[in-house]
Amino acid sequence: MSLSQALLNGDRLALARLLTKVENDSTEGREALIELFPHTGRAHLIGVTGAPGTGKSSLVNQMALYYRKNEDKRIAIVAVDPSSPFTGGAVLGDRVRMRDLSGDINVFIRSMASRGSLGGLAQATANVVQVFDAAGFDVVIVETVGAGQSEVDVARLAHTTLVVEAPGLGDDIQAIKAGILEIADILVINKADRPGVENAEKALKSMLELAHPTARVFKHHGTYMSASLPEPDANSNMWIPPIQKTVSTEGQGIAELIRSIARHAEYLRLSGGWALRERTRLEVEIEALIREGLMNRFREEVPAERYEEILDQVLTRNISPWEAVRQLMNGRSQ
Amino acid sequence: MSLSQALLNGDRLALARLLTKVENDSTEGREALIELFPHTGRAHLIGVTGAPGTGKSSLVNQMALYYRKNEDKRIAIVAVDPSSPFTGGAVLGDRVRMRDLSGDINVFIRSMASRGSLGGLAQATANVVQVFDAAGFDVVIVETVGAGQSEVDVARLAHTTLVVEAPGLGDDIQAIKAGILEIADILVINKADRPGVENAEKALKSMLELAHPTARVFKHHGTYMSASLPEPDANSNMWIPPIQKTVSTEGQGIAELIRSIARHAEYLRLSGGWALRERTRLEVEIEALIREGLMNRFREEVPAERYEEILDQVLTRNISPWEAVRQLMNGRSQ
Prior knowledge:
Two copies of one chain form a homodimer. Chain A contains 14 helices and seven strands. Chain A has a domain of 233 residues: P-loop containing nucleotide triphosphate hydrolases (Rossmann fold, 3-Layer(aba) Sandwich), CATH 3.40.50. Chain A is 57% helix and 12% strand. In chain A, strand 2, helix 5 and strand 3 form a beta-alpha-beta unit. About 10% of the residues of chain A have low confidence. A seven-stranded parallel sheet of chain A has the order 3-2-4-1-5-6-7, sandwiched between helices. The interface between A and B is large, with 74 and 75 residues.
């Protein structure tokens, strides 16, 4: 029996072995992904992102515990740490989590660290998520550390993206918030027992108002902002990110957060957003594969000596990079 | 007279206008870059990166002030904020800096915010740096917020990369440090008047030892670590990142940091590393242009209906993304 078959039959060891093969982008891993692909598309993919120090890992831990205790869902957690080519960060994360979740066979935690390019990491993460999806996990949570492209990639991958903030993290954090609103489906203020929580909430609300500046939205806005659990408005085809306050170390606010996530999923299904996100996700994946394929083909077609020769001309400033590319692309078959 | 010519003649307004054209990747901008390319390759490119809250902007500010007062160098600062598609973060950064540096025509500050993909931002930053280089700025400082791919891209662009830390930023930061050592030429502990500075230094030192685990390096290591201003060892062809402590708000440690940067530049020139980094940088740029060119050609060759048709088959799980790409790439000329 193939690893893929074993995985589809619920074999946990096969799952672990396949994840490694897929993460390493081995031929066997790639073949397994092709075999598993028809079984994907059922899991709810949740992205959790935010700046360092916001307590994301602890929040994800609590979310998983809640799903296990109250909804009997099978949960996979993928912890992505693009800044750690060593295992330091990721392993630390696992250890912290394991205290509460170890021994539960319906929770599976996978840490991924950067292997070279971020493009590679995003693709590897997408593939690992597909394996969990095919293996029948109901919820796959993808957590990223960092403030930058990794968030955008997570958002592209996820159905529901949580952006986690915490009070009092300084000015840089404020700046990050602005950019991150574009990808947030739900805003979480974690560590909400700390001083400065009102300011953090106020700042997020003003940014939400800036981001949704039409009168019609402002009307809904008032409703959403005053309610602790905003209702998605399926008719308006518009989702205003609710702000959820949590204290993950105490488990506070987790139930409300999980309800908010469920409402977002419902909203996506009613509005057609679910299918749209699936489409975007697969398009991004296909485009990445095409880029890789084109580049590989190009490398085969252009002799190394010719490439070096043209690069030398750029280094000596005889020709510009654009001219170099023009020559390389036109002379491929020479 | 063309904008490029005006820029080469020292016209500041032409510089500002060209930067905008280049950042927007307009045809005129691209033509200007080709015209300016022979005049590039002279500036010292310094990357400054680190997690939010470490005080990078203030440090860069002080570095620029020092260069102006003591070395009469012309300084350009490129503030890259990949997480801010709105202008919030970048504009804030400018305002803080402007108090000390405004009015000095030999300092030019440019803020860049994300426009779509990070790849696009990295390329736009590289192009803006080339404009400053051609315009005769002696030092171009590229500052990034964030923890992830943006640092790696900065390191690829820069001759000298500073990684900025600060005491007491929590566990997530620790994890980030591990990954960041790979790209650091100089480690800066900013806010060194805060509690926890000894721990931060100790942690960085242990990580450095892990990263350079040969006996020979350990020997140098002892020397480097005990000296406040480590000397590069040109003969060993090895650079161990020195740790510099600064309090940027007070200007403390800036002179030592600038000397350390100068030593790194000297080391690069003696060891051949300068030419190697130039080569890597141009190779990365050329590869990005090739990828873009190949993808554009592909889009022209594959009819949109065929692409949609195949994408639909993936969405319905009839074929896998890999099979879709195989069909698209083989059927290009159909």
